[in-house]
Amino acid sequence: MARSVGTELELIHLFVHLVNTGGFSQVAKELGMPVATVSRKVTKLESLLDTQLIMRSTRKLRLTEEGSELFGRYQNVVAQFDRCSEPRVEKAEGTLRIAAPVSIISMIFIGVLNDFSKAYPDIQLHITQNNSSIDLIDEGVDVAIVGGAQPDSSWVSKSLGVLDYGLFASPGYLACAGTPQHPDQLVEHSLIKVWPLFNWSMKHVSGEDFYYEGPAKLTLGDLNGAVRATVDDGGILYGPELFVKGELASGELRRVLPDWHGEQRRISLLYHQRTHQPLKVKLFIEFMQDRASCLFH
């Protein structure tokens, strides 16, 4: 008789439960099937193995030597399988690995991450801050926060918001160097460039375009440092308005050429699509999207 491994394992599973419960009626009730079906399946297993496993009796179940050997061999295996098959209550715990550019964490999301840690104290956040592209899978990243184009189309992208770029300078710098009236005059000023936008694209409210790819007095990979340099009268910065919101409100910085608007860069969450997404990842995505709706408006 041709043997099917799947069928044989299913029958062995039933046989072990039969022995554990002590009778055909009991196991039929436990597994939700008629007694006749249980008896037929045991007979089928005996036929597949070409051996008698049970000495049938009206009063009690008695195993043959071969039946005892089979039960002993698979008892623990079936028990482990049953434990794995039980519905598992997933907990909000474990290490969540996050990758993001340096400035995005420190200047936008550090408060949100602190609040998430307080809300879910059993989830540990491991944050890798790097302005260079990394292989998210090789690095074991659960969620990445990125700006601009999505680096890997195989990952799911969820938008958090949009950064609006513009020109900013301190009152002290403008008092000394003067205020440009047109982007053409930027070459006469000390300019501060910061990763990743070393070339500047701007559009006037009238529709006129301007593109600057000339030199800068200071070029940085850290936007936080660039903002500090701008506040300290270092020059004119091309950066996202959200990152200097506090400095604009306090008067430490002013908008330069307000009728000229820089480009927009979308900030997104990236995560790998899984059939069963870990709870810690689901909670983080929901938390970030909820808080971002306030940050970017």
Automatic annotation (TrEMBL):
Domain HTH lysR-type, chain residue ranges per copy: 7-64
CDD domains reported in the protein's UniProt record: PBP2_CrgA_like
A GO MF term: DNA-binding transcription factor activity
Gene3D superfamilies per UniProt: 3.40.190.290, Winged helix-like DNA-binding domain superfamily/Winged helix DNA-binding domain
InterPro entries assigned: LysR-type_TF_proteobact-type, LysR_HTH_N, LysR_subst-bd, WH-like_DNA-bd_sf, WH_DNA-bd_sf
SUPFAM superfamilies cross-referenced by the UniProt entry: Periplasmic binding protein-like II, Winged helix' DNA-binding domain
Gene Ontology biological-process annotations: DNA-templated transcription
Pfam families, sorted: HTH_1 (PF00126), LysR_substrate (PF03466)
Signal peptide residues on this chain, from the entry's feature table: none
Record keywords: DNA-binding, Transcription, Transcription regulation
Family: Belongs to the LysR transcriptional regulatory family.
PANTHER family linked: HTH-TYPE TRANSCRIPTIONAL REGULATOR, LYSR-FAMILY REGULATORY PROTEIN
Name by which UniProt lists this protein: Transcriptional regulator, LysR family
